[in-house]
Specification:
By secondary structure, this protein is mostly helical. The chain has a domain of about 300 residues: Hydantoin permease, CATH 1.10.4160.10. The chain has 20 helices and two strands. A two-stranded antiparallel sheet has the order 1-2. The N and C termini lie far apart (about 45 Å).
Length: about 525
């Protein structure tokens, strides 16, 4: 008899290995509550505010762009989630089929670092709300937030599903109240604002940028997708999995992001630099409704962050190669430390570059974080604690939440450009042989590098000239500002086409050899 299975108050014993048939349990309907709870949070709402405050998009244009981006992203998120029940492995293990054992370490490390980074951003928002609510010192509120989040992530899969299911009801009600308060004050005819910080492309570019913003947010969950469906019985209907994930993610994302955009027309004088908590407080005043809003911000932070901790830890565990002592870990550490230094060299905090010492320290921390998980054997719960500690350390900079969140968000939005070509590769690989490939092969060290790595790099590199972000605007985006940021779609299509071409060549070679 299993000691875990559907037990909530037992620490999950499994890490990145395939879930045995005796442990499989649950229904696909549970995925609706999980993804609804994870996205019914303040960061989702805050994302919508950027569409109007940052890009200057009209309210109608912003809502249209956010709708299209979320539909596209959540459709694909649902598809990737179906892989979990069939294979019984996490998403980052499943992607080894396309990338190879060592090639897959790059997206796995990005998942690990993204989990740490988004955990830090959300924790800053939630801690600031808790400070406003309780008047605790920032550090004391931060510790309370960290402990609660890490404990749930340590208990693992079943505890996360149970917590998200309960919070889906509470957060849904809280944000419904915020919606009722916001609607009467919304200027539905709000026009394009040419004075917004990134409004240089006009209304059409604002719509495209809003689409890219919402798509990138949904895409940020894609490396986690199978992690929360891998315990479902293998015979579970893929259609039911897809529908529950799609609806669970799309509904809160579309509604809350649209609410965030609308809120910027209801709050006069609000800018892209305002923290979400400040905007909520302006909307709700200082009475009972304000407390409801602050509680929603605080608990919404928890629902998103336990997924960031859990799946970030899974990504870290995928980096471990038990047969190599230092070669791969050191190479990965140097690679990601250098990449961090390069990205932070683009940063402008308050209009000035970051100090060299800050860039150097951050790069060394990233390199050390990658080295630890790729060199030493950690259990899943130990990796979860590590992600929580590292994210908590980053959150210490949140005593100025607006500037800290802005800096981290810009960094992670640049970092998120890798997801679209990765998702394209994984999706096409699934269609061209991944479904039939035995799960056991995903734990073999051969092939070391797969065609997916080449396709992913091609998609990523080709997308760079189309980037349009606060830290970097590519040459094509700069010369054609009205097209907005179409880099996600360019990277997705190029990676898909390159992988499909390489997969067909591989089949032709195999057929000739036989």
């Amino acid at each position: 008899m299993s000691a875990y299975k559907d037990e909530t108050l037992v620490v999950e014993p499994h890490g990145i290995e395939q879930i045995p048939d005796g442990e499989r349990h649950g229904r696909p309907s549970g995925l609706f509550g999980l993804w609804f709870g994870a996205n019914a949070e303040i960061a989702t709402w805050a994302l919508g505010t950027l569409s109007v405050a940052l890009y200057g998009t009209s309210l109608k244009g912003a809502i249209f762009g956010l709708l299209i981006g979320n539909l596209a992203g959540c459709v694909l998120l649902g598809v990737l989630a179906t892989f979990g029940a069939r294979k019984g492995v996490p998403q980052m293990v499943q992607s080894r089929y396309a990338f190879g054992f060592f090639g897959n370490m790059i997206p796995a490390a990005l998942t690990y670092l993204s989990g740490i980074g988004w955990f830090a951003i959300n924790t800053v928002f939630g801690t600031y709300a808790l400070v406003t609510l309780t008047h605790l010192p920032y550090v004391a509120a931060l510790v309370a937030m960290l402990v609660f989040q890490v404990v749930i992530a340590v208990y693992g899969y079943n505890a996360i599903h149970a917590f998200e299911r309960v919070m889906a009801y509470g957060l849904g009600a809280a944000f419904a109240i915020l919606l009722v308060v916001t609607i009467p004050r919304v200027n539905f005819a709000a026009p394009f604002n040419p004075h917004a910080p990134l409004a240089f492309g006009g209304e059409f570019a604002g719509i495209i940028l809003s689409t890219a913003l919402s798509f990138s947010y949904a895409a940020g969950w894609m490396p986690f997708a199978s992690d929360y469906s891998r315990y479902l019985p293998a015979a579970t209907s893929p259609k039911r999995i897809w529908l529950n994930v799609f609806l669970g993610a799309a509904l809160p994302c579309i509604v809350l992001e649209s609410m965030g955009a609308a809120a910027m027309t209801a709050v006069h004088g609000a800018s892209a630099d305002a923290s979400p908590t400040d905007i909520v407080m302006t909307l709700l005043g200082s009475g009972v409704l304000a407390y409801v809003g602050l509680i929603a911000v605080t608990f919404g932070t928890l629902t998103a962050n336990i997924l960031n901790i859990y799946s970030g830890a899974i990504g870290g565990l995928v980096l471990k190669d038990a047969r190599r002592a230092w070669t791969s870990p050191l190479l990965l550490a140097v690679m990601f430390g250098a990449a961090t230094a390069f990205l932070l060299s683009l940063a402008k905090n308050g209009g000035t570059p970051l100090p060299v010492a800050v860039v150097a320290i951050a790069s060394l921390i990233v390199a050390a974080a990658v080295l630890v998980v790729s060199r030493f054997s950690l259990l899943r719960w130990q990796a979860a604690i590590l992600v929580g500690v590292l994210g908590g350390a980053l959150s210490l900079g949140g005593s100025d939440p607006a500037q800290t969140a802005k800096l981290y968000t810009n960094f992670l939005l640049v970092l998120s450009y890798w997801v679209a070509p990765w998702a394209a590769v994984v999706f096409v690989a699934w269609l061209t042989g991944g479904r039939e490939s035995p799960a056991e092969r995903l734990y073999e060290r051969q092939p070391a590098f797969g065609a997916g790595l080449v396709a992913w790099i091609a998609g990523f590199v080709v997308s760079v000239p189309f980037w349009s972000q606060a830290w970097y605007v590519g040459p094509i985006a700069k010369s054609l500002p009205r097209i907005g940021d179409i880099s996600y779609y360019v990277g997705f299509v190029v990676a898909a086409v390159v992988y499909l071409t390489l997969a067909r060549r591989r089949e032709e070679v195999a057929a000739t050899a036989s």
